Amino acid sequence: MQNETPKWSKITRWLHTLIALSLTAQLILSLVLAPPDEFDDASELAKTAMEGHEVVGLVAAGLLFLHWLWMLIPNNDVKLGNLFPIIGAGLKQTKSDIGYILKNKTLPYGDHGGLSGLVHGLGILIASAIAATGVGLYIVMDFTSQGFENPLFEDIAEMHELFGNFMWAYLIAHVFAAAWHEYAGERIIARMFRL
Ligand code: HEM
Ligand code: HEM
């Protein structure tokens, strides 16, 4: 059971690929972008990075919204019970996966739920939090009279930065786990990104 590699559905693969690309791009752009209060004196590169971050961020938020709609459909591979296995059979599977790691010192693999589902669910929550605060920044900057000088901007930006740190940590751990499975011969990266 633990070493079978189930396939992801086509819609899940497309959504994941677009989310992975857009969020990774967002994290890289965030390293160079000019925040609005420094925008006027910033380099052309930093200005372009901020404009790109705004557009790609709104697209990423739309993709995550679609992913939530997709998760609400019962009986698909990313149904809520798989990504949030906190009750019933899902919780039992998560506990048995943790037992497997402690016993065998390697990552288990079996279905889309259990511990791997829980970790992926956490990823969706972090990604959704950063996207929601990003959309919040967009609304305050572009649709309020004070723009980025609105006191709300600083509060939302602080949350956005905090979730940014979590997103980096998730991305690094998630790619490391995927590479681990790949190294173990499970070919999950090729399977997930096959469109
Ligand atoms: C949805 C995916 C998004 C990701 C992964 C993301 C990620 C990040 C990260 C990591 C930072 C750097 C935080 C720091 O300095 O430590 C940042 C800054 C920023 N992001 Fe985003 N972001 C996203 C969406 C958006 C959207 C939709 C907007 C809307 C305009 C936005 C606007 C900003 C602004 C203005 C800053 C600079 C904040 C400041 O330093 O004052 N982001 N973002
Ligand atoms: C921050 C960006 C990313 C997020 C939020 C994310 C999130 C997720 C989620 C939620 C799943 C479960 C399927 C789904 O619900 O769509 C998943 C699976 C997967 N992700 Fe990512 N992902 C990201 C980036 C990446 C990257 C860059 C890679 C490249 C190695 C990757 C490789 C995989 C693989 C191989 C799977 C399948 C794992 C399995 O079969 O158990 N992801 N990811």
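^ protoporphyrin IX containing FE complex. The chain is about 70% helix and 0% strand. Residues 137 and 157 are 7 Å apart (CA to CA).
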